[in-house]
Each structure stands twice: as C-alpha cells, then as structure tokens.
Amino acid sequence: MHFSDVLKSRVSTRAFDSRPIPDGAVKSLIDAALYAPVGMHRFETLHLTVIRNPYVLEHIRTLAVKATGDEKADPLHGAPVLIVVSTSLGGEIGALNVSCLVENMLLAATDMGLANLYVRGIIADAAKDADFLALSGIPEGFTPVASVAAGYALAPIAPRETPKNNMTTINYVD
Ligand SMILES: Cc1cc2nc3c(=O)[nH]c(=O)nc-3n(C[C@H](O)[C@H](O)[C@H](O)COP(=O)(O)O)c2cc1C
User: Fold this and answer.
1) Which range (50-59, 81-90, 98-107, 165-174) has the least confidence?
2) Residues whose CB falls within 8 Å of the CB of residue 16, separated by 6 or more in sequence, listed in order
3) Is 124 in the pocket of ligand 1 (CB under 6 A)?
4) pTM greater than 0.85 (yes/no)
5) Which of 47, 125, 130, 147 has the most CB atoms less than 10 A away?
6) Is the CB–ligand 1 distance for residue 157 below 6 Å?
7) pLDDT at 140
8) Mean pLDDT within 149-155
9) Residue nearest to atom 19 of ligand 1 (CA)
10) For position 166, what pLDDT does the model report?
C-alpha cells in the first residue's frame, strides 16, 4: 500500500474474529514498533509483550468486567493478539515513547490488511493488577502503558467517517 493510503485507511476496529494472525505478521508489527522514534535513544526503557494466550486475554477482559460491572465488557473486542508496550520511564516521556511504538504498529497492521485498535484504558487497570503482571511476564521496573489489538475484522472494515480530521485546529506562524 502507498504510505498515504495507509494513513487514510487506518481506522479503529472493535469487532475481531478469533482467528489468529500469522507469526510473520506479529513479527512485522514488532519490527514496525522497533523503528519508532524514541526520546534520547532510550530504547532499553521500552518492553513489548505479545499476548496470544486466551487465558491471559480473558483475564484482561475480566478486569473490564470488574471495573464496569458489565458482564459483557470486552475492551479487546475478541482480538486474538494484544501487543502491550511498557516503559521503565515515569512521566510524560515514557508515555510519549510508548505512543510512537503503538502508532507504528497500527500503521503496519493497516498496511498488512489487519484490523487494529489502540487500547489504553484497560491497560491502565492491568498495570495495577498483580495477576496480570505475573501472567504477562512484564519485567520488574516496567509499567504497561498502552497496547495494540490486532486481528481480522469480523465485518469488512468501514472507512473513516470523515476523509480527514477537520476538527483539529491549526495555526501557522510564518
Ligand atoms: C491515546 C489513545 C488511547 C486510546 N485508547 C483506546 C481504548 O482504550 N479503547 C478503544 O477502544 N480505543 C482507544 N483509542 C482509539 C480512539 O478512540 C480512536 O483512535 C479515535 O476514536 C479515532 O478513531 P479512528 O482510530 O477510527 O480514526 C485510543 C486512541 C489513542 C490515541
């Protein structure tokens, strides 16, 4: 896909097929993440966790059930893989770095025709859950901040509602 088409076609998917994605696709997502810019080259402050284990994915779902009281809550929307990005840096810089890796993965997934979603909300809960931290094997000293859910869309992916964001304001200082 042309890069401009990738940009235009990336869209959040919230209904995934349970079908797994090929290992090669997971590797491509990780490669994309590793090409992201990282403040002051502090690549060692980032950690990626590829979660495909259904039990662990279900554990994340149960955190959402607990948080919302909704038995049907499913923040991962049935995605078969979740790539969690953790950082050992506190504050803004850690989160900024994480977001660069996440966006690279969203775009790479789009380029491969995979449905994808930026998942942050439930990761904040998971970061405080001792069972999740143990199950995920995230190294000591790293905090999970955000993640990418990827897979195949249950229904054909609808294009974004607006051709481009026309709400963000811009000012030019020439
Ligand atoms: C920092 C950040 C956090 C997000 N967290 C979530 C999330 O936890 N769950 C979710 O369903 N979508 C999440 N999103 C996706 C946004 O809701 C989505 O990108 C936005 O509505 C624009 O829609 P689009 O991705 O289809 O263009 C997040 C996006 C960003 C950038």
Assistant:
1) 165-174
2) 76, 77, 78, 79, 80, 115, 149, 151, 152, 153, 154
3) no
4) yes
5) 147
6) no
7) 97
8) 97
9) 12
10) 84
Token pair 């279900």: residue: 58
pLDDT of residue 160: 74
In the reported structure, the alpha carbon of residue 55 is separated from the centroid of ligand 1 by a whole-number distance in angstroms of: 24
Closest atom of ligand 1 to 106 CA is 25
* CA–CA gap between residue 144 and residue 133 (Å, rounded): 9
How far apart CA 148 and CA 90 sit, in angstroms, is: 21
Cβ of 105 closer than 6 Å to ligand 1, yes or no, is no
What pLDDT, in 10s, does the model give residues 64-82?
999 999 999 999 999 999 9
Cα of 122 from ligand 1 centre, angstroms: 12
Domains observed in the chain: 3-151 (3.40.109.10)
